[in-house]
Design brief:
single chain; 163 residues; mainly alpha; 7 helices; globular
Amino acid sequence: MARKSRSVKKFYSGGFSYKSLQDHHNHQETVAAMESAHYYHLKYRPDIDGLRAFAVLSVVICHAFPTFLSGGFIGVDVFFVISGYLITTIILKNIENKSFSFSEFYLRRIKRIFPSLIFVLSFCLLIGWYALFPPEYKQLGKYIFGGAGFFCKLPFLSRCWVF
């Protein structure tokens, strides 16, 4: 266990003063700055959020009203371009700062993507339990397994006429 400074011990034990509270806050800011200083983060870009909104709305409208906006699937391409731009910018800046690491890059992606992925896959299993017949639920299980392992297209190969 890491050694705590006197002021931090005093803070955690309940007998704190303004000075110990201030020292603790400064320590937290320093640790946070050290953790984020070596890894480049993009600043907020409202123009990119606008493009994301366009992408999402076009896909939603395409699914909801296919005759109204039959080319709405272009939003998926826009989203891929945005993601590619953002990820490439972050990687290049970190390479430039000599702070790029594949393991850290993928660890950050896992921390960002997995909570949502687990929620969506669990929700699909839950709804499927109540809404699907047993053979359909078994098929859903294969797709969820593929989604969880990031090889979600493989279960579709047997259903595709090309293969």
